[in-house]
Amino acid sequence: MLNSILRKIKLFRRDEIKKIALIAHDSKKDELVDFVKEHREFFSKYSLVSTGTTGGRIIQATDLEIMRFQSGPIGGDQQVGALIATDEIEAIFFFRDPLTSQPHEPDVQALIRLCDVHKIPVATNTATADLLISGMKDQ
User: Fold this and answer.
1) Using CA atoms, how far apart are residues 19 and 45, in angstroms rounded to an integer?
2) How far apart are CA 20 and CA 134, in angstroms?
3) 126 pLDDT tier (thresholds 50, 70, 90)
4) What are phi and psi of 88, to 5 degrees?
5) What is the largest CA-CA distance in the chain?
6) What's the predicted TM-score (pTM) here?
7) Distance (Å, rounded) from C-alpha 68 to C-alpha 73?
8) CA atoms of 31 and 125, how far apart (whole Å)
9) Which residues are known catalytic residues?
10) How far apart are the first and last CA of the chain?
């Protein structure tokens, strides 16, 4: 058990570099998994965090190390928001479903608002995600 805890601490801190958050609504999870697989080399250079189910699916498909939080509707979005507020997030890839009402929509809006306040870039689809990766590679 101690090794598991130490691994999580190492994974979460990973040399104190800023993290990328990966989040997807249910109908967009496959799309985000495919996107991360396509850009695995890019994502492997960052410390990654994710909401529960999304992170599990990405880990399964890519073997990337990801610190998983709760599922979005039960607090995961707010956990990511806490990292934004403490200046630990560099970018968010949040593939949202704009056509389906979400039961935790207030949490989603709060997360987006925090990104705006703290000037954190958010990619909500593959087109903006490709542009975000291009911009981050140029830094």
Assistant:
1) 10
2) 15
3) very high
4) -110, -5
5) 44
6) 0.87
7) 14
8) 9
9) 77
10) 39
**Residue carrying structure tokens 């934004």:** 84
- CA 46 – CA 8 distance, rounded (Å): 15
Going by the DSSP 8-state scheme, the letter that residue 44 receives in this structure is T
**Residue corresponding to tokens 């689809």:** 125
Report d(CA 28, CA 72) in Å as an integer.
13
Looking up tokens 């990619």 gives: 123
Q: How do residues 43-86 score in pLDDT, each as one tens digit?
A: 999 999 999 999 999 999 999 999 999 988 888 899 999 999 99
95 token code pair:
């593939």
User: Residue 91: beta bridge partners?
Assistant: 20
Enumerate domains of the chain plus CATH numbers.
Answer: 2-137 (3.40.50.1380)
Residues in the chain: 139
Q: What is the pLDDT of residue 25?
A: 94
Distance from C-alpha of 88 to C-alpha of 38, rounded to nearest angstrom: 25
